[in-house]
Amino acid sequence: MTARMYYDADADPSALEGQKIVIVGYGSQGHAHAQNLHDSGYDVTVVEANPKARALADEAGLKTADIAAAVKAADVIMILVPDTLQKMVFETSIEPNMHAGQLLMFAHGFNIRFDRIKPGEGIDVGMVAPKGPGHLVRSVFEQGGGVPALFAVEKDATGTARARTLAYARGIGATRAGVLETTFKEETETDLFGEQVVLCGGVTSLIKNGFETLVEAGYQPELAYFEVMHELKLIVDLMYRGGMNFMRFSVSDTAEYGDYVSGPRIVDARVRDEMRKVLHEIQDGTFAANWIAENEAGQPNFKKMREADRDHQIEQVGARLRKAMPFLNPVEVVAGQPQAAAEKPRS
Questions:
Q1: Per-residue pLDDT of the chain (347 residues; tens, 9 = 90+)
Q2: Residue 197's closest CA among 274, 270, 134, 145?
Q3: Which of 51, 92, 144, 343 is the residue whose CA sits 20 to 30 A from 99?
Q4: Which of 31, 33, 38, 108 is catalytic?
Q5: Comparing C-alpha atoms, which of 35, 128, 118, 31 is closest to residue 76?
Q6: Active site includes 99?
């Protein structure tokens, strides 16, 4: 059975007409949602504790307010602070100021799926989860397009939750590309699995191990970087446009043959078994419990792992090479913040 996608014609913007939307958090997703909704003609107020981020919202021409007053006046509240902060923000500042009829929204189901947040009676609960980072949600919208998204309704106390959630998805431009209906459970579990097994954990581990294998065998680190990191974008871009078939059409027959005969030797049955274990740990709450405990302890292991990978040889080599390629618009993370890293190319 083919899943149904919902587009602009399926979302009635009048479902949010005259309603006040509050965006809690003005980070990556927050700035995109707020600005897109504002440009779509909705009444948007931003709540942001960080003075620098709040100033950015002011500069963008958005209304800002303190959280208590904003929540009391709101019809729709979208929580876009990090997962690990949402429970605290909800319990201390949002929940005491909520009233029946409001729609509480999320862009990721983590805190609802794992019972960290439990909205009271009379509150609608919905989700719109763009399948892309906030800067793309904003830039693609400005270009007239949209980033696809998932949407879900966990609780419909008013009978209007689904219509309002779809209207919100339209307001940020997601229905231009299409939105897929899901559940908080399905979105959370598949999102965590995708991040850990393929998109972040799987890819970075594959890159590091491939780089280390070549360097240990005596090959130049710079060459190894180009082979396992730099060219990855070219391959992913091909798959992004036309799937694995288009990628295989575009590469040489030698590369395609190597794909078939060597790929399954690297990602084999043992790896698949580990994938199943990771999925089980997500489903039964083990991962969530470990991540929550890690944050409650001050993130000691997380910080150690981040620091160890920050100085990996491939990062050092890559940073040096990218600086000589300003056309990549390279960035370097310094003191936890990205900054421009390009230098003028050598003549």
A1: 678 999 999 999 999 999 999 999 999 999 999 999 999 999 999 999 999 999 999 999 999 999 999 999 999 999 999 999 999 999 999 999 999 999 999 999 999 999 999 999 999 999 999 999 999 999 999 999 999 999 999 999 999 999 999 999 999 999 999 999 999 999 999 999 999 999 999 999 999 999 999 999 999 999 999 999 999 999 999 999 999 999 999 999 999 999 999 999 999 999 999 999 999 999 999 999 999 999 999 999 999 999 999 999 999 999 999 999 999 989 888 877 788 876 554 44
A2: 274
A3: 51
A4: 108
A5: 128
A6: no
Q: Which segments of the chain does DSSP mark as H helices, in order? A: 28-39, 51-59, 67-73, 83-89, 110-113, 134-142, 161-171, 174-177, 184-193, 201-216, 221-225, 232-250, 253-266, 269-283, 286-296, 300-310, 313-323
- Taken as a whole, the chain contains a residue count of 347
Q: And the tokens for 192?
A: 């965590």
Amino acid symbol at 276 = R
